[in-house]
Every structure is written in C-alpha cells, then in structure tokens.
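User: Is it possible to get a 3D structure for a protein together with its bound compound? The compound here is flavin-adenine dinucleotide. I've pasted both below.
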Amino acid sequence: MAQVTFKLWRGEGNNGSFKEYTTEVSEGMVVLDAVHDIQIEQASDLGVRWNCKAGKCGSCSAEINGMPKLMCMTRLSSLDLEKPVTVEPMKAFPLVKDLVTDVGWNYEAKMAVKPFKPRKPDASDGTWRMQQEDVERAQEFRKCIECFLCQDVCHVLRDHHEHDKYIGPAMLVKAAAFEMHPLDVENRIPDLKNEHGIGFCNITKCCTKVCPEHITITDNAIIPLKESVVDEFYDPLTKLFRIFKSKK
Amino acid sequence: MSDRCTTHEYDVLIIGAGGAGLRAAIEAASMGDSVGVVCKSLLGKAHTVMAEGGMAASMGNVDDRDNWKVHFADTMRGGQYLNNCKMAEHHAKEAASCVHELESWGALFDRTKEGKILQRNFGGHKYPRLAHVGDRTGLEMIRTLQDHGIHHGIDFHMEVTVTNLLIDGNKVVGAFAYEREKGRFLLFKAKAIVIATGGYGRAFKITSNSWEYTGDGQTLAYDAGADLLDMEFVQFHPTGMVWPPSVRGILVTEGVRGEGGILTNSEGKRFMFEDVPPLYRSSTADNEEEGWRYVTGDKEANRPPELLTRDHVARKIVKEVKAGRGSEHGGAYLDIAWIEEKIKDSETHIKKKLPSMYHQFKELAGVDITKEKMEVGPTTHYAMGGIRVDSETQMTTVEGLFACGECAAGLHGANRLGGNSLSDLLVFGKRAGAHAAKFAAAIDTFSAIDSKEVDTLVTQALAPVDRTEGENPYKIQQDLQETMQDLAGISRSEAGLNEAIEHIHAYAKRAENAHAPGNREYNPGWHTALDLHNLLTVSEAMCLSAEQRTESRGGHFREEYPEKSKEGSTYNTVVRKAQDGSMEVERVPVVPQTDEMKQIIEANE
Ligand SMILES: Cc1cc2nc3c(=O)[nH]c(=O)nc-3n(C[C@H](O)[C@H](O)[C@H](O)COP(=O)(O)OP(=O)(O)OC[C@H]3O[C@@H](n4cnc5c(N)ncnc54)[C@H](O)[C@@H]3O)c2cc1C
Ligand code: SF4
Ligand code: SF4
Ligand code: FES
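Assistant: Yes, that's possible. Here is the predicted structure of the complex:
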C-alpha cells in the first residue's frame, strides 16, 4: 500500500484545470481503479466513462501522463508513481466534463462510410463459403473497439481540426474492414478520395502506435486504401484494365 | 407538456442498445415503424460487446449429428427443466438462421476447412455449436448490428437513462428519461416499448458486469405492474479472475476450457472428475485421455468434466477452496498451457484461439497463459430470472410493453448454457421488434400524458442533487453489494436471506436520503443515486424468490436443502407488486411440455 497523487482534469467546456487527489493504491491496480476510488471517496461528481474494465469496450480513453491510453488497461506499476500521475481527457474532441469528451463526431463520420453490401450467396444453402485465410485480413480491422485513441493522436484532427474534411484513422480502419471483407461488393474508393479525405494522411504512423488492439492501422489499412485510390484515379493502365474486368 | 423536459414520439421505443435492443430496433424499423433507441452508455459499449466465447446455433458445421432437437434438449437439461419449453423450442429452431442473417449483414466468423462457419465446444452443449470469432464474438455481433442499424433511420439517444415508465390503466404509453451530459430530462411518447436492458450483476460485489447492470429494466417493468419470473436464478460463472484484487470478477471465457483448459487444485489434482451429476454421467469422459480426444473433435469421445454446466463447476471450485485445496489467492488453477504436451507450437495456437484472454492476463495480471496457469474463481455473471414474457410475442403482462434479451426470463430456466445468450438476443430481439411494431401499427394516436405526473417525476429525479446534504450513494451501493455477496450469493440459507431482506429495507431508507454533490452536468454520483432504487428492487426480488425455493437447483443453492426436490421441478417463481405496494411472491406451474418435446428430450438423454 502506498499513497499516490493524481492530477485529474476537472472542468467543463473551455474552463478547466488540474486538481490533485491523493489516494491509496495496491498491487495490480490500474488507473481506472484509482480514478474510481477518488470518485467514491472524494469527488462523486467526477465525470468518467467506463464499461467493461477489461479493454473490450473502448469507453475509458484518456491521456495518462500525456500518452493516449485506456485507463482500464494501464497498470499503475507501469508508471512512475514518485511523481503525480496526470490524467486528462482526449484533445481531439470537445470537452463535456472532466475526463469525458463529446465523441459524437466519430459516429457521424462513420455514417458517411458506405455500409457493407454482400455479393449474392454462392452456396446452394443460400449462404457463403469463405476460407479462414481470406477472412483474417478483414478480421484484423474488425477488432477495433472504437476507443478513438487513434483519432485523438492524428495531427490532422488534433492540431489542424480538419474534422469536416477527414474521417480519421479509426474510420479508415472501418472502411478497410468493409473493403477487405471477402463478400463486399461496394466501391468506397471514390468516397475515400473525395469525401473522406484520405489524402490528408501523411503516414506518420502515430495512430498505429497508440492502438490498444494493436491494429496495424497505417500499413495494413490506410496504405492499401491509398493504393486503391491511386489505382482507380491515377493509373491509366489499370483504368483501361477495369473496363474489361468487373470489380471483385 | 411540462416545460421541464423535451418530448419525442416514436411508434416503438427500445430501451437498451445491446444485441437484443439493436436486433429489435432493426426489425421494427424495417417494418416501417418510427423507432427510437435509448441507452445508458455510448452506442456499441453495451454488455454484448464483452461476450467472448460465441453464440450457440445447431448448424452442424463441425458435427453433422447436431440439429435443433439436440440443442433444445441440451438447453432444457441445462435449465433443469424449469425453462419455458416453447421459448426453448423457438430458440433452438431459429438460432441458425439468425446467425446466417448476421453473416449477411457483415459478421465475419471463423471458418471450417470447407469455408463454413466454425463452431466450438462449450459447457452443456453436446456437439461443437458455438459460432465465434476468436474470443471476441460479442464485439463482432454488436458492431455488425450497430453498423447495419445506423442506416435504418433509427434515432439513437446515447447516455440517456430511462427511470420511469408511464402507464395508462394496464397499457404502457411512454417513458421518462434522464440525459447525462447536461442533466436534462426527456419524455418519450410511444405506442409500444421494448425493454432490452440486460441483467443485474451489479447487486453483487464480485461480478463480471459493468456499472450499467443495475436491474433497471426489471424494475421498470415491476413498477409498471408486470410480473418478474425466476428471480432466484443467478448464474455465478465458475471462472472469473481472482488476482490481483482490482481485477477480481473479470470474466475468463469458458472458451479456455472448450479449447482444452483443465481445472486443478493446490495438490495438482484435476478435481472435476469427482462428483459428476447423475444427469450428465453417461455423457462425461471417464478419463483425461478421453476428455482431450473430445476437445480435439473425436466424435466417439465424451466431454471432459470441465465442460459440465456452470452451476456445477462453480460449486466444485468453491468446495475445493473450502477444503483448503484452493489456489494461492483462493480460487482454482485453470491451465491451458499444458496442451504443449499435445500439440506443437501450442503458444501460437493459444494466442490465436484465445487472443483477448492472452492479452487480458498478460496486461492485467502479468501472467502468460501460454506458459503459466491462471487463477480463477466464481463471479456473478448472468441473470436467468427477469421479466416474464409471452413465449410467442415477448409481451410482458403489461399491454404494449415487451422485453427481450437478458432482462427477459424463461428461455434458460434454472441455469443458462454458455453461448445461449447471444443467440437468445437475436432470436427474441427479432421477435420482440416484430411484435412491438405490429402492436404499434394497430394504434392510431399517441396517448395523452399527464403533465403533473411528469412534473412529479422531474422533482423526484432531481432530489439527490437538490438536497444540500445526505449520504454518499456509492456507500449505499457498496453496502448492498457486500450484503448480497455474503448472504444471497452462490450459497444461501433462510436465516441469511432474511437478514439480507432486513438490510435491503434499511438501505432503501438510506437511499431516500442519498445526496450527490455537484451540478447536473455529467454527474455519476447522481446517476448512482438514481440507480439505487433499481438495485434494491431486484435484490429484494432475488431474496424473496430464493427464500421460498427450498431446494437446490441450477444457479440457486440452499445450504439447508442441498438436493433438488420433486416439487421444485413443478413451478416457476413470480414476483409482482401487490395492491399495497409491497412485493408479493407466487408460484406458477411450469409451462407443460408437449408429447413431441418429451420424446425429443428422452431421445437425447
Ligand atoms: C464478460 C462477459 C462475457 C460473456 N460471454 C458470452 C458468450 O460468450 N456467449 C453468450 O452467449 N453470452 C455471453 N455473455 C452474456 C451476454 O453477453 C449477455 O447476456 C448479453 O450480451 C446481454 O445482451 P442484452 O442485449 O440483453 O443487454 P446488453 O448488451 O447488456 O445491453 C443493455 C442495454 O440496455 C441499456 N440500458 C440499461 N438500463 C437502461 C436504462 N435504464 N435506460 C436506458 N438504457 C438502459 C444499456 O445501456 C445497454 O445499451 C457474456 C457476458 C459477459 C459480461
Ligand atoms: S498515419 Fe495518417 S491517420 Fe495515422 S496519425 Fe498519421 S496522419 Fe493520422
Ligand atoms: S483503430 Fe485502434 S485506436 Fe483506433 S479506434 Fe479502433 S481500437 Fe481504437
Ligand atoms: S472500460 Fe472498456 S475499454 Fe476500458
């Protein structure tokens, strides 16, 4: 048992500041446990989101000592407890209160991505056959828990506030999940270029580094999508080829 | 209407956005009704997202001897025959098409060699039956429904909590809700309402359930005059994490045992081979070798005893701990690393089959499950009991009020089989949505709502923040959780239950004086204060139901009556609000099986 000091962001909208709380910590605790203890003992109105406490729902995203992380998966033993631990809300979205941000924009951005559209069933029983190797590619992207930590670190959103023009890495992962789905026949490539702003991404890979699901966002999702955009729009040979060969 | 809240009108209002609520919403919307969905958290964060192991459907892709009849018989046996047999029949018959429907909406399940949906073994299921995606099946399900549902013109109200239903006579006409972000109030006028709010595991201290699981739906229905059913049956999952303390209760999927994981005690003994219940003796492996053959797909072999039903496995672990043979921190050892004796490159295999378990133990407990044993013990997991519904329409005993998913009761009887919940959500979510839409279509206009009543609700809801002093609501919640854990948990007695009920009444008094400091915006203390009434109501219903069931069966264990009784198999327990406002308990006969059902059960002993 030890006493540890936490600096938590408190406030609403544009007004806020760090407030210090000291609480007792024990073996195995994660940041979310400490935040809950503070909530129960000292600040019952402290705003914080959580659900699963096991890294599965993507609710508890925050910046811990400046690093975008899930509070429920960050063990205190991984932090320097000699100094106060700072916990603050994500920066790419408007603050609601304390550690809670308004992530509603992400839900709108997702709406803009064309939904899944399957090809006709090919098996006689009205279903499909797919091989494990073929589903695995898209399964990687389907691990996304919508924590929006990648959106939080992407400079296009965080620093340049291009929310109107760019859907961000999380939604590109979504688009990749559909595009690489073995059954999907929709074409999202023109939208990716014209509506979703894939060109804004300059492959800094910051998003990949913070993904708690270890999705290789840049290499496996964004770069192949960018290549498809290039193929479709800038490569005359492919274009010609396309006339003879229907998609997928 | 009251100017203290905003009003919305929907043909069908769905309370809850887990698998059940979303499936119901899609069905109702595709029938042309206007649909609104409210949920306490953000979209996609409901409990369903946490489900790991899979969803049960007798597609027979891995073992072609499987069919709906075997699934039906397994479900009934698992539920110790207290299930509503008609619901069990619908479920077994419709689950497979619901899984295929989910696939057609984009769900990407793991595959067999032939390219079909792969199915895995799970406790109490005779054949490999669970469609799955590694150990994150719930995520696949909720995301598929969410991504499909958002394009159906459904209105979603996120971080909104319904606190009261509005009733006219015996008919539901609307719902009153509280919006967390600004602390404002919403009034929903609706022609039909579907409750899909999940369970009440938060009544206990050690639980796999999140803050949302405070029995809201059950209490909303109860307060509206509906019947609750089988509230004594709570599932204590045998394998929750036990160490470190801060992760106590977090679930370890049964999939670990389905993939060959074994349970051992401090002496290294595989204790599950002892005390196999008579109902399962003929279908359980005689030795370790046979158990392994089963796990690896040998059709001649019987299942290892680790895959017996959850109630049994949980009690066996408790017995070992009580006998002084528990693991270091008071549980049992769960070992999947041992399969290295059997398969080469077991490390990759385990990581592939159980990725989130690998991750969870590595990150939260510092344990590498491909090399080390896990420590596990029982955790409150699932509510078999809940709102009583009609087996055809999912309508409650209140007109226009429907329920589906974990908050509804009937399908699982005294004990739920793993994997039968996710399929339950789809089968009965779809049915509830369809019948609610039909019900709404027959109604012309929205009923008038008394604005005075709404005003009273606003005042009531504001009380915890308006009060200038009072008790911390978290403390009351914690005291209740201690009480339920100690006195109404995995092992119960008459004296203990009576004591629990006394405590509950005292907590209810304290709750009347709960105070949440701070303002109305996003105030979790306030939310906790509002949830207390629900937690207390379901806790009392659990205790009263448990008290009158003087036998042990499924999830319910009574110290004085450790065996099943003959009488116990003949009735279900109903709880409802009496005229004077007190809680009354009644026994109703179990839904009788048809001759065909009896034959099916016999043929699949
Ligand atoms: C860790 C874990 C693993 C599991 N694994 C499996 C498995 O492998 N297979 C299986 O079959 N089952 C499994 N289960 C069980 C299964 O996941 C749940 O029973 C199921 O997901 C419940 O779904 P639901 O739609 O009924 O409710 P939920 O998904 O819990 O959704 C409830 C919804 O209701 C909302 N709500 C609640 N109260 C209110 C209110 N007052 N006002 C407004 N909205 C409200 C919530 O916000 C939420 O949106 C598991 C459960 C857990 C906890
Ligand atoms: S790689 Fe692209 S999406 Fe990812 S952080 Fe950098 S700019 Fe943003
Ligand atoms: S891609 Fe990764 S970081 Fe981004 S939202 Fe999904 S899980 Fe979170
Ligand atoms: S609480 Fe679910 S990811 Fe942290």
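Strands of chain A lie at 2-12, 15-25, 61-64, 67-70, 85-88, 95-97, 100-101. Residues 217-234 of chain A form the longest helix (18 residues).
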